[in-house]
Amino acid sequence: FRRLRPWSTSYVGTPGLVKTLELAGARVAPKETDPPLLVGDIAAPRGGKLPGHASHRSGRDVDLLFFYTTPSGVPVPSPGFVKVGADGLAQIADAKGISYVRLDVPRTWELAKALLESPHADVAWLFVAEWVEALLIDYARAKGESPHLVWRAESVMLQPKDSFPHDDHFHLRVRCSDDEAVAGCVDGAPHWPWLPARPTLRDDVLAETLRELSEG
């Protein structure tokens, strides 16, 4: 993958998120000639509010741009944040005039699939416009993807109600890992039914731990 803004310092994420991006990038762009996964903002080096974002404060959020082809189906590098319509087309206006690119549905679905199957982090949400989700889910079903995987994708894909519809990128948010949760990370995300339960301490172990902490 490559950074959308190479000069920016807003590319600091949790280990699980970064490893997930490395895995996803390798899956969707295995060859040097493939257009790479283009990664937008993650978080600032010390976290906290990031200009232009309501979230992206803890290293667990990242903007991922979609993949595109020419209208005839030839893969092209991402033109950046361009709005995809319900027909899968996105308009680009530049000095040469107006042109169009088409959402590369197979590769964008492969990106979503790689994120969901990552062993390094659990997807909490994959914010995206509902019409883009429809294109991806219809493709996944037609391809014969596992119904369980499609159900998981439908569950985590959500068009946010308090921001723009996300018709030009995915906003991935991963859950706190177990180690991060123990250290105080609170994600507030759904505990999806396909995820294992969080580990808990037995009452006697917890009591002993608290006693040692109070004495130390």
Which characteristics define this entry?
216 residues; alpha+beta; four-stranded mixed β-sheet; four-stranded antiparallel β-sheet; 10 strands
Give an account of the 3D structure:
With 216 residues, the protein is α+β, with helices and mostly antiparallel strands. The chain contains six helices and ten strands, in the order βαββββββαβααββαα. The protein has helices at residues 15-28, 105-116, 130-143, 147-156, 178-182, 203-215; strands spanning 2-3, 38-39, 61-65, 68-69, 75-76, 89-94, 97-103, 123-127, 157-158, 169-174. A four-stranded mixed sheet has the order 3-10-8-9. The longest helix has 14 residues, at 15-28. The mean pLDDT is 90.
Query: What percentage of the residues does DSSP assign to strands (E)?
Result: 15-25%
Oligomer: single chain
Query: What strand line-up does the widest sheet have?
Result: 3-10-8-9
Helix content: 25-40%
Which segments are poorly predicted (pLDDT under 50) over 5 or more consecutive residues?
Answer: none
**Helix-strand pattern:** EHEEEEEEHEHHEEHH
> How does the overall form come out from the CA principal axes?
globular
- Our measurement of the CA-to-CA distance between the termini, rounded to an integer number of angstroms, reads 46 Å
Largest sheet: 4 strands, mixed
Structural class: alpha+beta
Average pLDDT taken over every residue: 90
Number of strands: 10
Write down the Rg: 19 Å
H/I helix tally: 6
